[in-house]
Predict the structure.
Amino acid sequence: MIKNYNSLPKTLGPRAAQLVTELNERRRSTFTLKDVGSITGLSATSARNLVHKALRRGVVARLKPGLYNLVPFELGRATEHVDSPYLIARELVGPAPYFLSHGTAFELHRMVTQPNFTVYVSSTRRVRPQTVGGHDFRFVHVTTEQEFGVMTHWVDKERFVMISDMERTIIDGLRHPAFAGGITDVAKGLWMKRDVLKVERLTAYAQRLAVGAVVRRLGYLLEHYGMANASMLEPLRGMLTATYQRLDPLRPAEGAFVSRWRLQLNVTPEELDAVRLG
């Protein structure tokens, strides 16, 4: 819960005015104590004191220890404000490469019909799960080599975050279905965007990631939905080993085996067909 300071008017001293002006110039409504010191030149203790005074006056709101939001002046006397969770996610990662992914990317690309209540972030930095400003954040570690298929998503007219593109979003969903609602939700996203997804890019991403379960699941779903012909699927089939994987790792190991894709169909074709009706 963000503490509510409502005892003083929203006036700014010269240091606070400098801080707010520079943060606005940088399009940084979410900031850290380190940012305060960098902008004002104050020591760590003085920076904390400056932020404490700004908190009391309702100029900034505390999200977590060391992380704050500017409270827009147009909100008047309001002293509580939580910025976009996507911008907060960027600050939680810090300077490391990152992109919004999995269920969050599915939602932003409008590839789902149900809301997602966890913000998923892939990053080359390991970050623990946490709740900030009422939002749950979960971080998925990726290597530098796995940082591809990323695009810009504009939060508003001036601020943006990085997000996986549609094809990478599908690939990540196939790798970690639990972070995207399960394999049927991933299949639904694939079907919903079948007219705009680039199959060549999907197969190229699967080859680049080189995760056997992803190759199997992608190949089977593309074939099941008639989205790719045999020649387009051949590169994926060429990567198969003798090992079988479950279509949905969240479900028990039961159901028919499909030797063509080395998959156990613990999700029935009828369940996959049902997403076409959604």
